[in-house]
Amino acid sequence: MSDSDTPPAEPLRWTALNPYLSVVVLECTTNDPVKAFAELTTLLAKPARRRVGRLVRVVATGAAGPLATDTLNGLGPVSALGIDQVWASIRQHSEPPPWASVDSPHMNTIHLLTVALRRNGMVAVHTDESTRSRLQRWLNRDKTAPFRRITPEIIEAALLSGKAKALWLQGTHARRHTKADIKNIYGLDLREALRPHEDASYALGAGRSELTDHPDRKVLTGTVGAAPGSSSVWLRTTPDFPTFVAGNVELFAALEADQKNEKPAGLSMLARPITDLSRVTSAYEVMITDPAMLALDIDDDTFAAARLFQENAVKVIGDPSSARATLTIGTPDGEQYTLTLQPQAAPNGFVLVRQQHSVMSVDMCGVVAGSGCDGRGSGGVGAR
């Protein structure tokens, strides 16, 4: 089907939506949130990378705001929902099943929903995994991006200070036979189960905790999940679109309250991110992204680079006076590659910047970092 044969997108039926309340929460960094929201939705509207055999088209779109008189079909003024702007898109993906060739007459078809809504300077984005990965890469790489993630300490204080039901912990210590790299634990209240001596070298990847009761919360109740590092929050399926919006409005209010109160994080004994690299030296470990965990729209060279890291020995040589690290990758047939990475401050944390590498077919910096392969990434180099 050519572009000229593609039927136009239909107006979105807002009353037909009941999304799972799972969002990435961001805050605007400029004085013009309307312009910033337009830039964000332009990014979200970009089509996925083309693949042989895959057909992608937008089947429905809708938007309302920022005028108070703007309305959502069937739901009334957007301001009545407690938000300033909303934008949504439904994309149809059709491609042959994994067991079929690209010219197979059999196709798997799915519909992917993306919703972005704004209240004041805060935005929530609900989308599919591939678009979510693209959004996170944009936040990591683009220094001019008009949004940033909510500070992890704010998310943890606002949402993970109650009884901890599940914790996904990532080790920051050097790998060893006597200590797990990752710990996923479940219980009645894991705040009582953590031990300072044993668990202080683990950082919080994600968690699920009971929310404390609040008179102004009708949707944001029960057990909530959050991954503070990616500014991600999830709760449950909502019965209708107004309930989905109400849950996000309550989430905005909870985060805004803790920005003002500056409560301490609820899991204070765990390892914490740093904001100053001046005292970080002697890197000893890198985190390699599993090929299966890379975004769906990566190219074949990046996937091959990830396989090279996963299947061969990687040696890390740390600089005793800085956070710079040199990696050597040796293959069974005698080939050897080197890659030197330097963590640098970025608007949303740190990025790994490639300084030099030996001649190789692709730049593997992003595979180490886990967010692309243009010389920058959002991963980690373990250091003292």
Please describe what this structure looks like.
There is one protein chain. The chain has helices at 33-45, 129-141, 152-159, 196-199, 241-261, 300-311, 365-369; strands at residues 10-11, 20-28, 55-64, 71-72, 76-77, 85-95, 108-119, 122-126, 147-149, 164-171, 182-186, 202-210, 223-227, 232-237, 285-286, 313-318, 325-330, 336-346, 349-357, 381-382. By secondary structure, it is of the alpha+beta class. The protein folds into three domains: 3-149, no CATH class; 154-261, no CATH class; 285-382, no CATH class. It starts with 9 loop residues before the first strand and ends with a strand.
Brief account:
This protein has 384 residues and is of the alpha+beta class.
Helix percent reads 10-25%
Please compute the radius of gyration using only Cα atoms: 22 Å
Estimated share of beta-strand residues: 25-35%
The total count of helices amounts to 7
Number of domains: 3
Categorize the overall geometry: globular
User: What structural class do you assign from the helix and strand content?
Assistant: alpha+beta
Can you write the helix and strand succession as a string?
A: EEHEEEEEEHEHEEHEEEHEHEEEEHE
Major sheet characteristics: 12 strands, mixed
> Roughly how many Å apart are the termini?
56 Å
* Overall average residue pLDDT: 82
> How many strand segments?
20
Can you tell me the residue ranges where pLDDT is under 50 for at least 5 consecutive residues? 359-384
Descriptive terms for the model:
alpha+beta, disordered C terminus, four-stranded antiparallel beta sheet, 20 strands, 384 residues, globular, 33% strand, twelve-stranded mixed beta sheet
